[in-house]
Amino acid sequence: MNRPTVSLIAGVAALAAVAGFASLTEPEASGSDTTAKTATQMPVERTSLLCPEPSASDVAETAYTSFTPATEGADAKGRAELALAGEESADGSENGDKEKASDKERAKKPLLTPKEPGKPVTGEVSGADAPALIGTAEGGFAPGWTVQQTTEVSSGTGRGLLGANCTAPDTDFWFPGASTAEERTDYVHLTNPDDSTAVVDIELYGKDGSLKSATGEGIQVQPHSTEPVLLSTLIDAQQSDLTVHVSVRSGRVAAAVQALDDKLGGDWLAASADPAGSLVLPGIPKDATSVRLVAFTPGDLDADLKLQLASQSGLITPAGNETLHVKAGMTAAADLGDVTRGEAGSLVLTPTEEAVPVVAGLRVVRGKGDKQETAFIPATRPVGTRATAADNRSKGSTLSVVAPTEAAEVKVTASAGSEGGTAASKTYKVKGGTTQDIEAPVPSGLEGSYALTVEPVSGGPVYAARTLEIPEGGIPMFTVQTLPDDRGMVAVPDAEQDLSVLQEQK
Questions:
Q1: Residue 440, Cα to own-chain centre: how many angstroms?
Q2: Strand 61-67 vs strand 146-153: parallel, antiparallel, or unpaired?
Q3: Cα angle vertex 124, ends 118, 125, to 5°?
Q4: CA 265 → CA 244, 348, 374, 398, 478, distances in Å?
Q5: Terminus-to-terminus CA distance in the chain, angstroms?
Q6: Which of 114, 189, 354, 475 suits 30 as a labelling partner, its CA being 20 to 30 A distant?
Q7: Is 238 helix (H, G, I), strand (E, B) or coil?
Q8: Alpha helix (H) ranges present in 23-148?
Q9: Per-residue pLDDT tens for 455-498?
Q10: Residues with Cβ < 8 Å from 447, sequence gap 6 or more?
Q11: Beta bridge partners of 123
Q12: What integer is the mean pLDDT of 42-50?
């Protein structure tokens, strides 16, 4: 197989891999799919990640952590960098209009340039002028590349800890759990990494169905730039529970919702996994004082969901919230209260009868009175082959792993620290139907921050989330990031077979 053929097939496979979904069972392979049977897993050769504008607060402090796990078979060479949107990157390519950029701006170096796989690299920005970031990784830096954006806001609307995994560009996103209530200020951040303008539609769905918005159609996002859209400007009525659908007419974007509350702090609401009949929402903190579920079904059929909490001891049905009826095209919500009651937990949604695809998200609150803080947990894909959470500190990191159906064993690796330290690994067993808050390994001699990588060893599918806590002034500031498969590996069919199929199609 010559290298151009490999690169072409790998590129096609990488694009196909974008269409992942969350389910409790692995999809069965078609008996006629002989190509899949002979496919070889190979590391991706190139990937992109986009980070939204972190905050409009003058007191915001944002840390970025970039990490690529060492991958067997990956190219020994390569590079990765995160450049400011609208500026030129280190390799001479532009992130904006070169004619309008000053010589000084074009000379700026990328915010982050990782030196080697297996070791995190960090960077920081301050204040309200921090822009979105556009990142590219190639060769050995591409497989499993993960970037965490963590912002501390000490006061004002949305004060708290806001965390987000920088995401790959795509064309379709669902965000159940947004709001235009009086106390909320929610923005959809759209970031375009490409050389042409992206055209985006934003659709909103409330408890009574679709909400018409002429201003949500045909939103233009200029090349190599970001566009924050305030949800309350798209509709007149206030809606406490909204599902936001971002669809791209032309081009591609990365999308995330920044949800800011006057009293409950704020965080980033990441996109839900693609619509599926069964969903897992992992990593509800054991001391959560309030948990609210928001679900939506985009099809023409109503969905009836069975709600179960995968606790440390097994699957539990929450009293008074055994099921949730979700009408077609309408957003449904349920207050689950302090559902975890002091134990690690994850929410498992399954159909009571017929499986109808749904999307879902959780709003989680910790603390009491004026010392409350909010985070969001979307339904997510399983860990799959491997998943990573970057920006873990010496204190305050909790890794939750759930095996919703069968028992499983996982390997957890703590990377070297960004400023020093030696990597460490440990394996853990998780009983079927349970969630375990794992006391994850910490690098020996740790200096700086580190990454946690989860790899299933045996058993059924597992889902995971990482909670990062940085308390301040009595407020339990925290953020939760799920750990879906990093898509660092793609299935590449045998070249000769692939060409023979093309020959037959002539």
A1: 21
A2: antiparallel
A3: 150
A4: 20, 26, 6, 20, 10
A5: 22
A6: 354
A7: coil
A8: 34-37, 103-106
A9: 999 999 999 999 999 999 999 999 999 999 999 988 888 655 54
A10: 417, 418, 419, 420, 421
A11: 64
A12: 95
CA 368 to chain CA mean position, Å: 28
d(CA 401, CA 405): 13
Phi, psi of 34 (to 5 degrees): -70, -25
E-only strand ranges, 120-214: 121-126, 133-139, 146-153, 160-165, 172-178, 184-192, 198-206, 209-211
| Angstrom distance (rounded) from CA 76 to CA 117 | 10
Q: Which secondary-structure segment (H or E) carries 496?
A: helix 495-505
Q: Mean pLDDT across the stretch 3-21?
A: 37
**Residue found under tokens 């407020």:** 475
Rounded CA-CA distance 171/252 in Å is 5
CB 199 within 8 A of CB 172: no
Highest mean pLDDT among 31-45, 65-79, 304-318, 482-496: 304-318
Element (H, E) at 167: none
